User: Fold this.
Amino acid sequence: MALVISVIAERPELWEQLRANSEQAPAAAVEAVWWRTATLADLRVLRVPGTVLGVRVEAGTHVYGVVHIAHRDEKAFEPPDE
Assistant:
């Protein structure tokens, strides 16, 4: 809930939009969690070999994913901060 409040506090126009379209509240809450996640990063160990961003990674390799940055990937989200 605090994540949703922090996003709305920074973007008052979103609050006005939600007030006018209250049926969007559930989707807005989900989006706020994606946009401003509480989990900033995650450490994993690959069980099988694979490719991460075009780089071959062998099984047993530690991979550190920065979730906060991934949610703002310009290749996946246009514009990433909107």
